[in-house]
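[PROTEIN RECORD]
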Amino acid sequence: MIKAILFDIDGTLVDSVDIHAMAWQEALRKFGFDADFQAVRSQIGKGGDKLVPEFVPQDQLASIHEKLSDFRGDLFKRKYMSRIRPLSCVPELMQRVTDQGLRIALASSAKKDELRAYVKLLGIEQFIHEETSNDDVEESKPAPDIFSAALAKLKTISADEAIVIGDTPYDAIAARDAGMRCIGVLTGGWTKGQLLEAGCFTVYRSVAELFATFEQSVLAPQQQDQAA
């Protein structure tokens, strides 16, 4: 039986993928690296530890990584964060999940202060039992660390009792390697085929569609009873 839902945030709960890509592209350009927008966008969902090496040559990485990441963080908060908007029906889905007695954890590659801003923007603080950010782990997605850390904070819940909801192949890979199943949503810009190939067991257009069809989803009590 499912006892917990682990939510990714960027691209899953908030419409932020393009915004993050623009911020990273501007930061990379500031340090002399002209990166294609779509190439940067395809890396969103990873943390800076995995994204930066895709665009900065290995021999320059050690000297520039921290400065570039810090600049991006400041730039994002100053110029880009205010452009992010919530996706539809996030509080409604979390209320439905909570009413069913499931626990909710946020598991994001965002920095802790960004995570808090998202929670406030979405108005979901009352639903969150645990949360992890990139401050809690050594490696970001597609490494499983963030989901494993969130599961550990939930304490008594095992991997097969938790489901991840995310928007990228990196979420699916990280969930799999943490021993969990992953529901994909298309709001991050990846295709259904790409998400299924990465390991999602089902895909919805959005969390709004999952909310609208909740009674027919794997999360509904009657569906779990049938599976059992």
Observations:
- The chain has eleven helices and eight strands.
- The two ends are 8 Å apart (CA to CA).
